[in-house]
Each structure stands twice: as C-alpha cells, then as structure tokens.
What does this fold into?
Amino acid sequence: MSEGGERIPMVLVVDDNAENRALAAAILVEEGYRVVLAVGGEEGVAAFERERPDCVLLDVRMPGVDGFTACARMRAVDVGSEVPIIFLTAQRDLDTFDAAQRTGADDFLTKPVRPAELALRVQAAVKLRRLGSELREHYSLLRRQRDDLVRLQLQKEQLIAFVVHDLKNPVNSIDLHAQLLSRTPDLPPRARHAIARIRDDARLQLRLILNLLDIAKGEEGRLVPAKVWVALGALVAEVIAALELRAGDVGVSLAAELDVQSIYADPDLLRRMIENLVENAILHAPQHSTVRILARDTERGVELRIADAGPGIPEAARDAVFDRFVQLTGGASPTRTGRGLGLSFCKLAVLAHGGRIWIEDAMPGAVFCMHIPTEVDT
It folds into this structure.
C-alpha cells in the first residue's frame, strides 16, 4: 500500500487488552500509519511473520506467551533483527527494563502512554530502520547511553521506594510509642510537652518521607489523586492542631478564614499540601504575627491562600521556589530555612488535581495560592 508512490509504514500492536489496542491504533492511524492488531503473544508472533511490519508495539504482561517470549521469537525470524520493537509496560521497575533489554527491545514505554510520546517514539523507530549503517552505529551508541541513563533513573526510583518503606515504619513506631506515653497518668507538664514535641517531629518526618515518594511519582505522571468531597473546615482544623505547637515555639499564631464548606480533592494530598504551606509560612513569619489560611469559592473551583507577614519572595524567584531542594533565604531568622521538598510536592500535587499554584505579595509577606477545580470526575 502506498501514498504518492511511497510505502506507508506498518505498525504491529500486540496487547491482550482491547482498550489499549484501540488507543494505540487510534493514535497511530491519526499519524498516518497502517496498523495491524494482535491479541496476545502467540497471535503477535504469527502476525509478525505474516505481515513483516516496520515497527512493533509489544505489551510485556500477557497470558500465555508474554512480551519477553514473543520478542525473542520475533528476533529469531529472518528479518526480525531489523524491526524495531518497543515494549509497553505498566511496571516501571529495573527488573522489567533489564529483561526487555536482554530479549532485544529497542525502546521501553511506561503505561499509561502519552499519545504524543508514543507517536514520537514510533516515528523515530521507523526512521531509524531506513538509515544507513554508519548512522545506525551512531544511533546505537546514543541508545546505549540513553539506556544507561534510564537504568540509573530506575535505580534511583527503586532506592527512593526502599528508603521510604524502610523509614515509614520506624517513624510510625516512634509516634505510636509517644501516644502510649502520653496516656500515662500524672505525667509532669515538662514530660507531657516533650512527648508532644516527639509526636510533632515524628509527623514532620513522615510528611517529608511521603513528600519524597510523591515527588518521584509526580515527576513520572503517576501521582493520581483519589478525589472525594472533603469537609474543608474539619481538615484545616486538623492541620492547625498538628502545627500549633511548632508555631507556638517561634511565637507565631495560626488562624483560618474559610468561606467554603467542602472541596473536591484527595484528602491526604490536600492535607499535606496545606501542612507544607503552613509550615513554610511559619518558618518565615516574624514573631507575634499570624499565619492565615483562607479559602473562597471561584467560578470554577476553590482558591486556598496561606498568608504570612514575613519578608516575602521577590517576583523573579517565585517560580524557582517550587523546584526541589531550593531553599528560601532571607527569612525572619537565619535558622528558619526550608528543606526545598515541601513546595515542590505542593506544585506536583496541585497539578495532579488539574489546578495551579502561584505566589502573591502580602505587603508585607507572601501569599501562597492554590486553585483546585471542583469538576467531579465522571
């Protein structure tokens, strides 16, 4: 088949899931490819031998003949070494990546696949097949370098997952034992205050650990909010109760002014977003000032605002403060600086909700603003 005398490239899509096949076919047909669909690895190998496609999209986890086995059998066909094979997998882990490399995969895409990324990867694979041998050698070198970087990224993600898992349990244990101690009758005030500080620090450490995990998820597009209707007043009251001790230690008070009763959001992510922003405000608020949590309805959602009376943030630095490990300087005290993860988490969590986050002047101080859309998922 040709268009204007030129052969139209063919892509073989092998996946046991009908919706995945339909989505890939729709994307590729729109890009001008011919598409052949196969259900499962056995049918995919037969279609490969029969059709001799220009590129293969191959699911990894399939019943019967899985993607790894199907890939090896395709490579054994007489022209199999020339056809680029792109693995599709929902499992973004080092073992899956290494197995894909061993069986001869040319590329590796994680589900859910972004349509633009899928189209670009297929386009690059088809063009590569038409290149001369010298250009192919250069590309192979670049691909090996890319694969090394992907391995490093996957190792980093695996390490983060291990660290988060290994740290969560002892931190939760510290908080649990502190709760048990707090129930001891006739504790002197000094001991009760020390226990409260232990619980406060344990909650802070747990929030930092979860921030780290969710930042990694958000950067890979895997942070998916479990949205429900949340009673905003009760949630904000929990945040204030959790941070009152920390605020009191530096002479800062907390107040809420909420004109909204409920918000459609993931309650855990929302609570941690507000906690991170309030904690950040406490770090930069001067003594005897108040950090305010405000909420109001807008035409398309809810706007949350956390305001402090600190030194503010220069307009030129307002985007940079949401980057990882960027610390705000020039606070009310040189010992009160941020860790650079909380604000990055907030940005990714807001974006995962389909909203946005920005900074305004409080004159004096800074106002961190979040807009959360209220459209209910269908």
Observations:
- The first strand starts at residue 2 and ends at 3.
- The chain has three domains: 2-130, 157-219, 228-373.
- The first helix runs from residue 18 to 30.
- The radius of gyration is 27 Å.
